[in-house]
Please model this.
Amino acid sequence: MSKLRNIVILTGAGISAESGIDTFRSEGGLWEQHRVEDVATPEAFVRDPDLVLRFYDMRREAIQTKQPNAAHVALARLDREWPKREGGDVLIVTQNVDDLHERGGALNVLHMHGEHLNAWCIACDTRHRWTGPLIHRPPCPACGMAALRPDIVWFGEMPYRMEEIYAAVSTADLFVSIGTSGAVYPAAGLVRNARDLGVQTLELNLERSKGSAWFHETRLGPATQIVPDWVGELLSS
Model:
């Protein structure tokens, strides 16, 4: 651990669950009483755009009422203090579409699956910070077209900024996965990439994930307990 410099941290739904944000897929393949296929695919948006927009409008509104928890705050502390102390980098790659990492104080965050508080204009390919509803087809601030959709990576679409993520893993000394199921690719494959490159790997999770066997070490428990403990240990070593 004394030679650690660069750290890449992958976070999933488990880190935000204790803030009251539901995990993506529950038993039975439902997400808040909707089939994933009905609200989280490009085909669903073409078939029933009103249903999709109403669904994401509700999610966007709800997320703004939630607060970052101790795990978000701990990672923000690591993000701020580690580069000053070790001269390395900390990159938080999140599968989550909430803004709790940022509101917890983190600066170096990459949202590979998009953000609820963004809207994407499919007419002029611009993205805008967006906190209100989209159901009424508001015009794009850039081009004026009524072509805004949630800036969310749906099933069948390519996650954002994968080249940057792979590059960061390739220069990492430690890869940490927090609150992930290990079932959603390509995020779930990052630990294998890290292992192939000789990077140390650590899993912090409520229970073992589908990819637990790929990690050098797994620590189990609620994120609000084990993440602050790990950060404190790292910063005091």
Q: What stands out?
A: The longest helix spans residues 70-86. The chain has two domains: 1-21+68-113+159-237, 22-65+117-152. Residues 26-30 have pLDDT under 50 and may be disordered. Residues 22-65+117-152 form a domain with the SIR2/SIRT2 'Small Domain' fold (CATH 3.30.1600.10).
